[in-house]
Request: fold
Amino acid sequence: MKLSADMKAFEKRLGHRFSNPELLVRALTHGSVSSSTRPDNQRLEFLGDRVLGLVMATALLEADQKATEGQLAPRFNALVRKETCADVARQIDIGAVLKLGRSEMLSGGRRKQALLGDAMEAVIAAVYRDAGFEAAQKVILSLWGDRIHTVEADARDAKTSLQEWAQARGQKPPAYVEISRSGPDHAPVFTIAARLQDGSEAQATAGSKRQAEQAAAQALLDRLTS
Reply:
């Protein structure tokens, strides 16, 4: 199989040239355009998630040899979560080469966080299947870059900080309540309220529940500490 010019350009952005180009094509094939003779990237996504996890766990242990499991776990979660994978995917413009069905293209699939994150994991698996663990590790460490060394700020997210604020004052952990959901199924918008036992509350709106919860927690923190 010969890759198109845009796929070859993507290989350069990725930092890996495939011996088996079919693996890359499959990694970039979304279920909306798959068929019995054109498998999608879901199985590769499953594998890529595990490869990414092993690389990140190893990198974190090497980066801070004195850190406890309790310190490492939130850093790990911040590095492998879907939002981070999607950010890396945007960094190398995976969206430009994703193979999508017409409905997904019309609904902005090339920009969807979930699709980008899934494709990034699938591409990692494709590199692993194509050239082994060391090749996948090299690609991951290059693309994630300084995130590994600056992850502490990301790991201490707003929800964690708000919970610690509440517990330090003898309150129960914050509650997160879905106030509303709007928009089409393929692009929902959530409004979430972060509430404390003492009645303090703040709301935020975002394209995913997690993002809305984080934003609401940050808004409430800002109000409480201002």
Summary: Residues 42-63 form the longest helix (22 residues).
